[in-house]
Specification:
D-Amino Acid Oxidase, Chain A, domain 2, 6-stranded mixed β-sheet, single chain, alpha+beta, 413 residues, binds flavin-adenine dinucleotide
């Protein structure tokens, strides 16, 4: 193995937080590598990476031994460190996961065990009274306090990652949508709306389009991306005192979504949401957005039809809650009973890139598919923003190893 020659190159398709964090880690480990990031929008980080809850997840929910558990635990430490050294606004404010009935209180116990197995420290089971000491307006019969979690400005993380990559010689090409990938000799040729790029290795971090980019490279994504829109309301400024930090419900174990919750934002204000509504467009941020190709893709996919069969009621329920502010408000009232309709102001929305397998199950864990001199990040849902630096580190090491590129810098744990 030798130090990479300047001609070794990698093309990263997708300038979201995962692509950027991987580019950053690659340049740390292999300073001579030619890193080019291709982004279809006019700026990086325009999709999931800046349309999310802005929460730093410590790894409470994820199956012990899963990539999500491993990378969230490591990732929150790395992200917090990154924010500290780059002056990015963040705060480890702690979170409550609140059970509002006996059945949820039972599930809370297994969540507590999961969190402990995943190595979280300081977890505490709270009684109803103890909940009120931390969140005076929250209702609940029991809760878990997760002191290690927090809030962050992911838009700032994206900006700092991008400028760091550029200052180390990496290239970011925006307004460049990748439309085709072809093998040319031992290299890849990426055809984009801003010209063609030859590269030794392709890394696909295209988020909502990761399955399509995977297919462009002739690899089988093994699943299909189904877009789930998450809509938010904002609490009116006069009512933000009802939530001090982060108040979450006990998640439904059938779904990888966390349920509508309250999040204090790092730059002020409190958001409530997101729900999880099947969207009719991969970048469908509004209820009225419709994309014929995306919808056709979904309804002709066996996995999607099986998912609908299994979870039809949930899908109808989520759609109804999306259309009715009253229903949305009712689910919020289970956590904070004092919330009223008049407290809710229109908020934003994000669209989750969620992989769905042919059996109709949502792929819970992060999923990477290895191809010929290529790697496809097919499923990187929450907590991939928190874990992005740890994901990037793991991907960068895997690529360097496969390509026989010797690492120049040791990496933090
Ligand atoms: C509503 C919501 C709430 C969430 N809350 C949290 C949270 O609180 N904490 C947390 O850790 N995670 C959260 N997540 C998850 C987190 O935001 C995502 O896991 C993470 O941002 C994924 O990053 P990404 O880089 O893979 O995707 P993206 O940010 O979507 O980036 C993919 C990029 O690829 C580009 N692209 C796509 N196709 C092409 C192409 N053909 N050519 C060129 N470029 C292309 C896109 O334009 C995009 O910029 C949330 C997600 C959502 C949607």
């Amino acid at each position: 193995m030798s130090t990479p020659a300047p001609s070794n190159s990698i093309l990263i398709i997708g300038g979201g937080i995962v692509g950027l964090a991987t580019g950053y880690r690659l340049l740390e480990m292999l300073p001579n590598l030619e890193v080019t990031i291709i982004e279809k929008e006019t700026a990086v980080g325009r999709h999931q990476s800046t349309h999310n809850s802005g929460v730093l997840h410590a790894g409470l929910y994820y199956k012990p031994g899963s990539a999500k558990a491993r990378l969230a635990v490591r990732g929150i430490r790395q992200m917090t460190e990154f924010c500290k050294s780059n002056g990015i606004a963040h705060e480890i404010c702690g979170k409550l996961v609140v059970a509002t009935n006996a059945a949820e209180a039972e599930r809370l116990k297994s969540l507590y065990e999961r969190g402990s197995k995943n190595g979280l420290s300081g977890l505490r089971m709270l009684s109803g009274e103890q909940i009120r000491e931390i969140e005076p307006h929250a209702a609940g019969v029991a809760a878990i306090h997760v002191p290690e979690e927090g809030i962050v400005d992911y838009a700032a993380v994206v900006t700092v990652l991008a400028s760091n990559i550029q200052s180390r010689g990496g290239r970011i090409v925006t307004a460049a949508k990748t439309t085709a990938l072809r093998r040319v000799g031992s290299q890849w040729l990426a055809v984009t709306t801003r010209g063609e790029f030859l590269t030794d290795f392709v890394l696909n971090t295209a988020g909502l389009y990761s399955d399509r980019v995977c297919k462009m490279a002739g690899a089988d994504p093994k699943s299909r991306i189904v877009p789930f829109r998450g809509e938010y309301y904002k609490l009116s400024p006069a009512r933000t005192h009802l939530v001090r930090n982060l108040v979450y419900p006990v998640p439904n174990p059938q779904f990888p979504f966390l349920g509508v919750h309250f999040t204090r934002l790092i730059h002020g204000g409190v958001e409530a949401g997101p729900n999880a509504v099947l969207a009719l467009a991969r970048e469908g941020y509004r209820k009225t957005n419709f994309n014929a190709k995306d919808t056709f893709d979904a309804v002709t996919y066996r996995g999607f039809l099986r998912f609908l069969q299994k979870h039809f009621r949930m899908c109808i329920g989520e759609t109804a809650r999306s259309l009715s502010r009253t229903l949305f408000c009712r689910s919020l009232q289970t956590l904070i009973p004092e919330i009223t309709l008049g407290d809710l102001e229109h908020g934003g929305a994000g669209v989750r890139a969620q992989a769905l397998d042919p059996s109709g199950s949502l792929v819970e864990d992060f999923q990477l598919i290895h191809g010929e001199h290529s790697l496809h990040v097919v499923n990187a849902p929450s907590p991939a923003a928190t874990a992005s630096l740890a994901i990037g580190q793991e991907i960068a090491s895997a690529i360097a190893q496969r390509q026989g590129w010797r690492l120049v810098r040791p990496q933090p744990n």
